[in-house]
Amino acid sequence: MSEKPLLERAQRFLSALRHCQLLGISAHAADASGLTLRLPYSQAIVGNPESGVIHGGAITTLMDTTCGISTICVLPQFEICPTLDLRIDYMHPAEPNKDVFGFAECYRVTPNIIFTRGIAYQDDPSEPIAHVVGTFMRMGKTLSAGGIKRDVDGGKG
């Protein structure tokens, strides 16, 4: 699948997730190598009002979502893939007043599990805020049928 349809599919997936709507998370880039989402800086996600530093929970949400939605980059058809395990190693706090980007790739796909890894960063991916690894359970095409599949696939079946 080319970059534009993957990006549109990722954005449709995000639009079905209410918490992502509230946080303003959007699809930034998507191709066969992985997915990048953007979490805009806002006062609603500040963990320390004195410093303006983003709460770790907002970054965790960004990275869980990025890893989970990155599955669309490797699966030929939409499948619901809930999180089995997620590990985040925080390297340093995000700088105040700057958006955070999350990148994730699927590095192994089995019939039952998808393995992902990625980073959260601001200006430079070579200076990550956090590293993440996650595993996601494949529920299969039959269990993924219904409303969210139609939303993500753009109204198709």
UniProtKB/TrEMBL annotation:
Transmembrane segments: none annotated. SUPFAM superfamilies: Thioesterase/thiol ester dehydrase-isomerase. InterPro entries: HotDog_dom_sf, PAAI_dom, Thioestr_dom. CDD domains: PaaI_thioesterase. Pfam families: 4HBT (PF03061). The keyword Ribonucleoprotein does not apply. Keywords: Hydrolase. Residues 52-127 form the Thioesterase domain. It comes from the Bacteria. Gene3D superfamilies: Hotdog Thioesterase. This is PaaI family thioesterase.
